[in-house]
């Protein structure tokens, strides 16, 4: 088996210890011929993967976060309307060294080097792979999520901070998120959403200040805790859409807290239900804004847009994944915190 390992040295949790663990485990995989390269700038991983076929490599191993995975997928598949079949390009494996690592964790990889290394080696040794659905935006691809609103604004501001040499710490994310929410109180984004599901259901909503599409369940992680918005979502169906119709006032604060899993008592959910929009198995989504708004894909700021078309492609890419089907994540951050306190 021929493998190309692409490592992003600037990934949040990249370390020599993790690489040593992975390298030692891969050396134990009989017949694996490994080539290792490092990225040097944004977009480098996509450039290295562009035009690769199964004749070049059997697998590309991404060592990085969700942004690195996104680059490799876009490099391998190219424009959506001319993408090759999954069996024509190298399969994908992941060594998660980013901050959230949503893609790898949704596949079932553990965020601990000693477990991850053995999981990856076993998946390669036993040739355990599956094909998954990928999301699309205009002519590009996404593996985890995409959307307009506060999350895109926060990502753009954090990227500005990191470009000045500051670390993206949880406290910095909190400060930036608070500032972004305060700015939206005066002039919230206005997003028109038109979507169709695989079952023919239609969503048509106007003037939403926040909306994102997810290709996984959970949508993201806060440390070890999953953030669930669309419990039915998975890599085997269309996109899950989640949005808020208002983020102003006390109800807006409550809705934002509910988004990260706080407040799942029945009275609380009834109170904010009229502010939330959930839509599952979306196959076609059109997002329109009267003014350019920040847009993010897989945790990376992509620019300002007035319209974006989202979609999904079944069986778009092969991935090496741990043995067994990942458990469906239906629990919220609030539930996990309560269990932790009860055990302690």
TrEMBL record:
Its EC number is 2.7.1.107. SUPFAM superfamilies: NAD kinase/diacylglycerol kinase-like. Pfam families: DAGK_cat. Keywords: Kinase, Transferase. GO terms for cellular component: plasma membrane. Its cofactor is Mg(2+). SMART domains: DAGKc (SM00046). Gene3D superfamilies: 2.60.200.40, Probable inorganic polyphosphate/atp-NAD kinase, domain 1 (3.40.50.10330). GO terms for molecular function: ATP-dependent diacylglycerol kinase activity. PROSITE patterns: DAGK. Residues 1-140 form the DAGKc domain. PANTHER family: LIPID KINASE YEGS, SPHINGOSINE KINASE. This is Diacylglycerol kinase.
């Amino acid at each position: 088996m021929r493998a190309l390992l692409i490592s992003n040295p600037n990934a949040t949790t990249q370390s020599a210890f993790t690489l040593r663990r992975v390298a030692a485990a891969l050396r134990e995989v009989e017949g694996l011929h490994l080539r290792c390269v490092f990225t040097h700038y944004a977009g480098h991983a996509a450039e290295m993967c562009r035009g690769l076929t199964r004749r070049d490599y059997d697998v590309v191993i991404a060592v990085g976060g969700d942004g690195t995975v996104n680059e490799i997928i876009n490099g391998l598949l190219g424009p959506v309307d001319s993408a090759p079949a999954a069996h024509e390009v190298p399969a994908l494996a992941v060594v998660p060294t980013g901050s959230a690592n949503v893609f790898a964790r949704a596949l079932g990889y553990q965020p601990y080097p000693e477990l991850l290394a053995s999981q990856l080696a076993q998946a390669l040794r036993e040739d355990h792979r599956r094909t998954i659905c990928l999301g699309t935006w205009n002519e590009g691809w996404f593996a985890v999520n995409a959307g307009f609103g506060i999350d895109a604004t926060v990502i753009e501001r954090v990227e500005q901070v990191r470009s000045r040499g500051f670390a993206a710490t949880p406290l910095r994310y909190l400060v930036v998120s608070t500032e972004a929410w305060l700015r939206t109180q005066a002039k919230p984004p206005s997003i028109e959403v038109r979507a169709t599901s695989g079952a023919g259901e239609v969503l048509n909503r106007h003037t939403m200040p926040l909306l994102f599409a997810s290709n996984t369940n959970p949508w993201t992680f806060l440390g070890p805790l999953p953030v669930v918005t669309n419990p039915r979502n998975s890599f085997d169906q269309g996109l899950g859409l989640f949005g808020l119709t208002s983020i102003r006032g006390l109800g807006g604060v409550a809705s934002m807290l509910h988004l990260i899993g706080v407040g799942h008592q029945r009275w609380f959910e009834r109170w904010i239900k009229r502010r939330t929009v959930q839509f599952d198995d979306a196959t076609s989504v059109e997002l329109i804004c009267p003014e350019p708004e920040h847009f993010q894909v897989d945790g990376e700021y992509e620019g300002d847009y007035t319209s974006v078309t989202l979609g999904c492609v079944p069986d778009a890419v092969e991935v090496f994944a741990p043995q067994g089907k990942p458990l469906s994540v239906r629990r919220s951050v609030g539930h996990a915190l309560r269990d932790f306190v009860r055990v302690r």
